[in-house]
Design goal:
The complex is a heterodimer of chains A (302) and B (328). Chain A is an all-alpha fold. Chain A contains 13 helices and no strands. Helices cover 76% and strands 0% of the residues of chain A.
């Protein structure tokens, strides 16, 4: 009986010691991975449990155990009625800020990235250098001057004041210019031109379907980034009914320490849970697209 | 912490993309016409960029050169007061200390997790990858609220455990002045480890199969494959994640602000907290602009310095050599 090299190296052939060692390594690895998963999941688990407790349950029951009687119903009522139901506005606002910003940022970045990748024009290199250079500028450095400029233009405390600066997404342009170069063959564009289609029509009808995966990635990155943003809306907005969730909830948290304020712990905790729930539920489906976008800068530099 | 995906990348493929297929004068005519469409396509971005990015950037420099009292040109006055402000500098130094510990721990953990998920000893890779990445979907403010409440002894009975066992004189107070910096490290690590792991794992998946198989044929153990082959091959990605983390550390804002609201942990722990207070509590926008410019400069210098450090310290031939040794 002849034994080939592959069989020789197979764990079964190496005997039970190899199998045991492998099993031990798998066990140790799994134990470590589970430990880290616990660290990640503990606050989220706590958020679910704590959102079902009222104030006295929060302070008097075991932190990680569910209460005997859940208070979700009354907590939800409190969340949506406290201070004239501001929370409903925050939820709606976060959705408006994130979806409008993401749509426009994806559109503007795709258009610009496509223009840079598929056309040669005077100043093209300069635009590219501008885009890449601005990746180095930390976003928070612009917040204070942005407030002053928007104040001057009468844009503070408005929806467009928050949305417009966030549409400028240099990483999106950079991402799209490389994505377009790979995804759309030049020959395809030429044949569309020969058929007499205009450039914008070619972009919409021929290139857009090919670019769709990249556009989805951009939309999601911008959506999550805007949904999670705090510094910019905090500085630009003054009226509570314009707040997104992050700014609103932080205002509630800061009211906890003021004298004679209501102890609105259950509202804050349930409000936090409601703010992360949509994204956590959708995340398994979106993870693939988001991960691709994040790794992009690293891989293209590889 | 507002980390933007992207950041500085080393090499930029600006490709020459001549439209093929059409030749001669017709091609040149087409190209000129196309060129105009290309410029038009970039114009919406450029217009918004000018108003909402370049504008504020230039304005902050102009503003930083003006007197807070009179608004007249005052040279480097604001920079001098920013430099002589002890709390601003100690905040920057504090971020250096913070980053040294937190970024090291976080990137170390992210590397270990990515290598383990990429190893044959991992069961349920997809589930773990998803779980670790989940915090990316949680806003920094919410993460700080959750952890802030979990680190408050009044709300978290588990913190009183060492006390009831007689180990400490009272419940653990992670949000006390002495420990709050480490509490923020715990939160930031929670938020961004999976993000960095995801980037590294994608990069590891791109390591060529042949290289790994050749190593196995030569009898290399999984551990040496991980440390001698995979790690050198994803070195650039590791550097990239460290750079993103350095930038993020210097911009820290959300977590310290929320923790301060929960437990009065201090309103000038980080440079951005100080800039916010200077501009909006004290109304000194000129000084705040100077501080913003300094912070941006420190960020860029730190990034460039780190690139210089790893370029010189590590052999640029490390990755190809590993590949060659195995591919032989």
């Amino acid at each position: 009986m002849s034994v080939n090299a592959a069989q020789l190296r197979s764990p079964a052939f190496r005997g039970s010691r190899g199998v045991l060692a492998r099993r031990a390594k798998t066990t140790v690895t799994t134990a470590f991975l589970v430990l880290v998963a616990v660290y990640v999941l503990i606050p989220i688990y706590w958020l679910v449990v704590a959102s079902s407790k009222n104030t006295s349950q929060l302070f008097n029951t075991q932190t990680f155990l569910p209460p005997l009687h859940v208070s979700w119903a009354s907590n939800f009522k409190g969340l949506f009625t406290f201070e004239d139901g501001d929370f409903r506005w925050w939820l709606l606002n976060s959705f408006i800020y994130a979806s409008v910003t993401a749509t426009l940022a994806a559109a503007v970045s795709t258009l610009c990235g496509y223009g840079l990748a598929k056309y040669r024009f005077r100043g093209r290199r300069m635009v590219f250098a501008l885009v890449v250079g601005s990746l180095m500028v930390p976003a928070t450095a612009l917040v204070v001057p942005l407030f002053l400029l928007e104040h001057f233009m009468g844009l503070t405390n408005t929806y467009q004041g928050v949305i417009l600066p966030l549409i400028v997404y240099p990483f999106g342009v950079y991402f799209m210019s490389i994505f377009c170069a790979d995804a759309v063959p030049d020959g395809l564009l030429d044949s569309s031109r020969v058929d007499g289609a205009g450039e914008l029509r070619t972009l919409w009808q021929i290139s857009r379907p090919l670019l769709m995966p990249g556009i989805v990635t951009l939309f999601l990155l911008s959506f999550i980034g805007t949904w999670n943003n705090y510094f910019l809306p905090l500085v630009l907005l003054g009226t509570e009914s314009r707040f997104p969730l992050t700014v609103g909830l932080s205002a509630w948290v800061s009211s906890l320490s003021s004298v004679g304020a209501q102890p609105i712990y259950p509202e804050i905790i349930l409000g936090s849970f409601v703010s992360v729930l949509p994204m956590l539920v959708l995340f398994p489906f979106l993870q693939r697209y988001v991960a691709r976008g994040l790794s992009f800068g690293a891989i293209s530099g590889e | 912490m507002a980390v933007q995906a992207g950041g500085a990348t080393a090499s930029l493929p600006i490709r020459a993309m001549a439209p093929g297929g059409v030749t001669g004068p017709k091609r040149r005519r087409l190209r000129v016409a196309h060129g105009r469409s290309g410029l038009m396509m970039t114009s919406p971005f450029l217009a918004l960029f000018a108003v909402f990015f370049a504008g504020p950037l230039i304005y902050s420099i102009v503003l930083s050169l003006r007197s807070p009292l009179t608004g007249a040109y005052s040279g480097l006055l604001n920079y001098r007061s920013a430099f002589s402000n002890a709390s601003f500098w100690s905040a920057i130094v504090r971020m250096g200390y913070f980053g040294l510990i937190q970024v090291t721990v976080m990137i170390g953990l992210a590397i270990v997790l990515a290598l383990l998920l990429d190893s044959p000893y991992c069961r349920g890779r997809k589930v773990f990858a998803l779980v670790y990445f989940l915090p990316y979907a949680v806003p920094g403010v919410i993460a700080a609220i959750m952890w802030g409440f979990l680190l408050e002894p009044d709300l978290d009975s588990a913190l009183g455990l060492p006390h009831s066992l007689g180990l400490t004189s009272g419940p653990i107070q992670p949000l006390s002045y002495r420990l709050v910096l480490y509490a923020i490290m715990l939160i930031v690590t929670w938020e961004w480890t999976g993000y960095n792991m995801t980037i590294l794992l994608t990069s590891l998946t791109n390591v060529p199969h042949q290289v790994l198989e050749a190593a196995k044929v030569d009898g290399a153990s999984e551990l040496s494959i991980a440390t001698r082959i995979k790690l050198p091959l994803v070195r650039r990605t590791i550097i990239f994640t460290v750079v993103l983390s350095i930038i993020g550390t210097l911009q820290l804002f959300n977590e310290p602000v929320i923790l301060n609201e929960i437990a009065t942990t201090g309103n000038s722990l980080t440079p951005n907290q100080i800039i916010y207070n200077t501009a909006f509590v004290f109304g000194n926008e000129q000084l705040a602009a100077a501080q913003s410019v300094i912070l941006a400069a420190v960020t860029i210098v730190a990034t460039v310095a780190f690139y210089g450090l790893v370029r010189r310290r590590m052999n640029p031939l490390a990755a190809p050599r590993a590949t060659r040794a195995v591919a032989k």
